[in-house]
Design goal:
Blueprint: E1 2-8, H1 14-27, H2 32-53, E2 60-68, E3 73-80, H3 107-115, E4 118-124, E5 127-135
Antiparallel strand pairs: 1-2, 2-3, 3-5, 4-5
Helix pairs in contact: 1-2, 2-3
């Protein structure tokens, strides 16, 4: 099963985006822990697109969710036509440092990378494509 949602990349649309994902995950019999991890990851990535991809203008983001087998799980893909940005290129923050000693930024992407089973970015045909895979707990 695959579903797509194309929506204006605005923070105000976050509830609609998460509702779209949660509806798909409920149909897929996704466990609640995995659903919560996916919600947090999608929120982080969507808000990043909303804040930075088109600023100060507005643009769309396409969110595609699809089931996987072997292992059973889901792939969530965000595609936008905003400025080129590879969120995986930035070095991970040093989480051993206190919050006061760490540089600002990067913690959200770090959490996405740690909570997902796979993350992938490419720039293709003028589009940013960010894909994350999460396996369901059996």
């Amino acid at each position: 099963m695959t579903k797509k949602l194309t929506i204006t990349a605005e923070v105000e649309k976050l509830d609609e985006v998460l509702g779209f994902l949660d509806s798909f995950l409920e149909e897929s019999n996704c466990d609640i822990k995995t659903q919560m991890q996916l919600d947090v990851a999608l929120e982080e990535m969507f808000v990043n697109v909303a804040h930075y991809a088109y600023a100060p203008e507005k643009g769309d983001v396409c969110i595609e969710v699809e089931n996987t087998t072997d292992p059973e799980g889901v792939i969530v893909t965000l595609t936008d036509s905003g400025i080129p940005y590879d969120p995986l290129a930035k070095e991970d923050p040093d989480v051993t440092l206190s919050a006061a000693d760490r540089q600002i930024g990067g913690l959200g992407i770090f959490m996405v990378k740690k909570s997902m089973d796979e993350v992938f970015y490419e720039r293709k045909d003028g589009k940013n494509i960010f894909r994350m895979r999460k396996n369901f707990i059996s």
